[in-house]
């Protein structure tokens, strides 16, 4: 009688589908990719995140509505007389301005806690050659130096006392209120 041998079927190492080292490298690359996505994702969202909160945005919107309502005469909607704007807002000192538009201040109203800039700007401040043109805009309140602020804008018609619009605001201008 013959001894029967058990035949084992095996594969050599180069025929195997995946080794332990392949698995470790694959999982390592996957974990690094996930870590990169989670670390990079907040920087994609950041430019769309407003540094101004909801309170500042609501305050700017309220002030813009109040300015338009106070200066519109009722005959023409959103029509502002530039001399009246200057008398009421531009020539007012900080305490008077804070009272008129309802800014937060201490009891003596000597210290105003909120900063506001109310300005009337041209809709298209570019010149004929496409460059930015520095306009003589009507502005009241604190100086705005491109810091982060909440803003609200209204399209208004600006006219002089005699009913003619100033140069640059023939069709319309933009009333911009910024708070910070």
UniProtKB/TrEMBL annotation:
<feature type="transmembrane region" description="Helical">
    <location>
        <begin position="23"/>
        <end position="41"/>
    </location>
</feature>
<protein>
    <submittedName>
        <fullName>Uncharacterized protein</fullName>
    </submittedName>
</protein>
<keyword id="KW-0812">Transmembrane</keyword>
<dbReference type="Pfam" id="PF23958">
    <property type="entry name" value="DUF7287"/>
</dbReference>
<keyword id="KW-0472">Membrane</keyword>
<dbReference type="InterPro" id="IPR056613">
    <property type="entry name" value="DUF7287"/>
</dbReference>
<keyword id="KW-1133">Transmembrane helix</keyword>
């Amino acid at each position: 009688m013959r001894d029967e041998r058990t035949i084992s079927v095996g594969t050599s190492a180069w025929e195997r589908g995946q080794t332990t080292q392949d698995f470790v490298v694959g999982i390592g690359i996957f974990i690094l990719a996930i870590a990169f996505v989670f670390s990079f994702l907040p920087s994609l969202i950041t430019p769309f995140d407003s540094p101004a909160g909801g309170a500042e945005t609501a305050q700017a919107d309220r002030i813009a509505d109040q300015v338009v309502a106070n200066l519109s005469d009722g005959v023409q909607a959103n029509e502002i007389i530039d001399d009246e704007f200057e008398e009421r807002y531009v020539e007012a000192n900080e305490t008077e301005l804070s009272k008129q538009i309802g800014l937060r201040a201490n009891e003596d109203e000597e210290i105003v806690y909120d900063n506001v800039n109310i300005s009337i700007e041209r809709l298209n401040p570019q010149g004929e050659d496409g460059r930015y043109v520095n306009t003589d805009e009507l502005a009241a309140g604190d100086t705005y130096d491109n810091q982060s602020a909440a803003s609200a804008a209204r399209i208004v018609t600006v006219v002089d006392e005699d009913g003619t619009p100033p140069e640059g605001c023939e069709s319309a201008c933009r009333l911009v209120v910024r708070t910070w």
